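ok here's Aspartate carbamoyltransferase:
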Amino acid sequence: MKHLLSTEGIDPADATAILDTAAGLKQSLEGREVRKLPTLRGRTVITMFYENSTRTRVSFEIAGKWMSADVVNVSSSGSSVSKGESLRDTALTLAAAGADCVIVRHPASGAAHRLAGWLKHTGTSVVNAGDGMHEHPTQALLDAATLRERLGDLRDRRIAIVGDVLHSRVARSNVHLLTALGAEVTLVAPPTLLPAGVANWPVTVSHELDAELPGQDAVMLLRVQAERMYGGPAGAAGNGHFFPSAREYSIAYGLNERRLALLPEHAVVLHPGPMLRGMEIASAVADSPRAAITDQVRNGVHVRMAVLYHLLAHEEENA
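and the structure:
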């Protein structure tokens, strides 16, 4: 594996290998006072984020450091990008400086693929940490890892993805990955928050959350991405034409305690964060034992360790 750019078309065997490696790494680090492995010693990993991030950026940095890589963070505001340097020139500069892997988040869909094309002769790997409304493959992998811990094999499991599917790269990556692993995915959203062409996706589409909950093994709530709708903060949600108000969205699609009771007892609640409590999810649900939201963050470190391992060390160890 040279890059991780997308889950679309991913080989289930490759995805399972990453998930199995993540589980092995988690087990090997459990109980250790010093969580440090020598696996990527001498390797240089650079994170290049053009959009704000807490969970993804921090977990990639921790993942690299726990595997003894040298991790360098580059932000657009503190680099030559602020002087007008192009993404291509920035990437080539980082590769020339010795980057073994560049982890990129960018507001333009397809940015990570372009980056991989520009760096194809340099030997530098590229990981997509989120590109516009396109994909977020490591988020889907950590979601799958969390579901496997709670539910076991995902084949024939029923998973509902609820909310702002239209603007969600998390939803797209999860649809590709979860269906590749044999799960049955249902998208639940108002018609205004579903993308064009969704009828061609390998999913079931519904607009009625209450009707879908009793048959689900897991519910994944999505963040309402007001900044992509209106260019404003999350509090502006409902001021455009996607839904009337935050309150009406919550009434129709928010996961509250009443709706939690409709789910089977074994069902798991996920959210990629950051959560809009009281709108997308009630605090009592987010903090309940049924929710695996902190487990997602914890598993994100191990999954990203596994991705770096497969990109930078796996072939060498096999040899």
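+1. The chain has two domains: 12-136+297-318, 137-295.
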